[in-house]
From TrEMBL:
Keyword annotations: Membrane, Transmembrane, Transmembrane helix
Segments passing through the bilayer: 7-31
Top-level taxon of origin: Bacteria
Name of protein: Uncharacterized protein
Length: 63
């Protein structure tokens, strides 16, 4: 919602830049998508390593 309000303000102030931003936003989103997926994979890898490391402590703490 905040992005839309900022875009509306930009549209009032300088409508050509707002129209260009409207068309470039999906292209930029598609270009950044692989980096988001890579970040998700790295985060899952770190979670897996942390859970493997913490497993003995969880087993001992359950008693």
């Amino acid at each position: 919602m905040l992005t839309f309000i900022l875009w509306c303000i930009l549209f009032v102030l300088c409508w050509p830049i707002a129209i260009i931003a409207l068309f470039l936003y999906p292209i930029v989103w598609l270009l950044l998508l692989p980096f988001r997926l890579l970040g998700f994979a790295v985060e899952l890898s770190f979670d897996l390593v942390r859970n493997i490391f913490m497993l003995p402590f969880r087993i001992l703490g359950a008693r």
